[in-house]
Amino acid sequence: MESQYQPLCQRLRQHFDQGVTRPLEWRRQQLTALRRLITENEPALLAALHQDLAKPAMEAWSTELAYVTGDIDHSLKRLKRWSAPRKATTPIVAQPGQAWVQPEPLGLVLIIGTWNYPLQICLAPLVAALSAGNCAILKPSELAPATAAILTELLPQYLDNEAVAVVNGAVAETTELLTERFDHILYTGNGAVGRIVMSAAAKHLTPVTLELGGKSPVFVDDSADLTITAQRLAWGKWLNAGQTCIAPDYVMVTAKQAGALMDALASAVHQMYGGEPKSSDSYGRIINERHCQRLITYLDGHEGVIGGEHDLAQRYLAPTIVQTDDWGCALMQEEIFGPILPVLVVKDFDEAVSRVRQGEKPLAAYLFSKDGEQQRRWVEQVSAGNQCLNDVLMFSAVPDLPFGGVGASGMGRYSGQAGFDTFSHLKAVLKRGWLKDLPLRFAPYSADKFKW
Ligand code: NAD
User: Fold this and answer.
1) Does any ligand 1 atom lie closer than 6 A to the CB of residue 402?
2) pLDDT band at 293 (very low <50, low <70, confident <90, very high)
3) 276 catalytic, yes or no?
4) How far is Cα 220 from Cα 318, in angstroms, rounded to an integer?
5) Domains in the chain, CATH or no CATH each
6) Domain named Aldehyde dehydrogenase: which ranges (predicted)?
7) 155 C-alpha to center of ligand 1: Å?
8) What is the pLDDT of residues 34-72, one digit of tens each?
9) Given Cys at both, which of 87, 209, 230, 302 links 268, Cβ 3.0 to 4.6 Å?
10) Ligand 1 center to residue 285 CA distance, Å?
11) For the CA atoms of the chain, what is the radius of gyration?
12) How far apart are CA 183 and CA 110, in angstroms?
């Protein structure tokens, strides 16, 4: 049966086929218009993010709006270089000749977003898709309805409507949309749905980028400066009330430092959110009651909890630190994706590495240490989508670093040129000259040709 989205896909694909989206001028116009959308509607966008997640304005501005405009500026500056032919060395057998890689747009791409950074997670992949000269359909998360609504309202006012469209809906609509053929799908969300997206894509041999999650570990070594460590950890953990895919999920520390680290973390929380985080303007809320309840349940049976106060009706859970030695508890089995930070004692660096390696490959992995040899070993021995040494999250502020997971935390990457390449086909081209070829290459392969 024909899906309700077929006419839309057909329309956008036709636009692509007419070559409208190919010229760099069109791409620049779209990127500049998207930039204007953000700057001209800043208050309304911040209000929508506040409605969905009670995001503090400063936080929403830096991690969503400015993140995307920064990405646009970065792309605009490099667009010409990224899209230019990339010279390849031509070996003697192909001489005289010239070889190069020619990036070309893929066609119609689908971007499926999630709710935790509902603006950034839709628009940053869109920046990459438009930079590469594609048409795109955006499917924002239904769990952040205010942001989905404002994107639906504003995008058509700024962008080429024959090239970019927004489709809203939940499971039923997304399932139907996924029956259509796309030239690439970028999905952000959990791994269970990632598998559904990948099987739907397989029917059309559509390549996918899956931006998933996982339990991103932290090891704090004895040499670390605990005040700086705690401040950076607390920022990265309780930003967006812990609902960040690369947030530190749990912290490992030696027995010698555990108490001091807990104190330093508690004090960093106090400095950022005061004695009563519930009334702090700088602290967000959980996306919905279901997720809030899931998080509260994680605390069952745990002693040694700092924080933990909650108010389900207000979707509030305080910044919470849990000291535990139970590696088998629910808190340590699933991605937490909320404001609870378990702290676990390990014997040493080797145990920390081995604990991480026992689990699925995480989206991010963090080491706090002044020891250069440990830093080298962490990078070498811990496989993760992304890493930061002596900080958390900040790699995502470097547009030239590709962002993506490995293993269960995802596949493929975007950000900067990685995003441009994800939404391009890197076509190999060889152009030959007209000098006569050596006869060796052509049949008949008589023995006298191979006398050397
Ligand atoms: P979600 O519930 O918003 O789902 C994501 C998208 O999938 C939505 O658009 C939703 O409509 C769609 N969807 C849900 N069920 C579907 C189904 N059965 N078939 C087709 N589509 C379906 O988001 P979520 O999964 O709760 O997101 C949280 C997860 O996302 C966490 O694991 C987090 O780590 C991860 N995440 C990853 C990144 C990253 O960049 N790697 C960023 C943010 C979040």
Assistant:
1) no
2) very high
3) no
4) 23
5) 5-212+409-429 (3.40.605.10), 217-397 (3.40.309.10)
6) 14-429
7) 22
8) 999 999 999 999 999 999 999 999 999 999 999 999 999
9) 230
10) 18
11) 25
12) 8
Could you tell me the two tokens for 279? 């009334």
Q: How confident is residue 157, by pLDDT bands cut at 50, 70 and 90?
A: very high
Residue 449 Cα to ligand 1 midpoint, Å, equals: 61
- The SS3 assignment for 189 reads coil
E strands in 42-157? 86-88, 97-105, 108-112, 135-139
Q: Is 209 helix (H, G, I), strand (E, B) or coil?
A: strand
For the Cβ of 335 lying below 6 angstroms from any atom of ligand 1, the answer is yes
pLDDT at site 324: 95
- Enter the ipTM: 0.97
Question: Does residue 371 surpass a pLDDT of 80?
Answer: yes
Instruction: Name the catalytic one among 245, 292, 335, 388.
Output: 245
pLDDT in tens, 233-263: 999 999 999 999 999 999 999 999 999 999 9
CB 196 near ligand 1, within 6 Å: yes
Residue 62 CA to residue 234 CA, distance in Å, equals 17
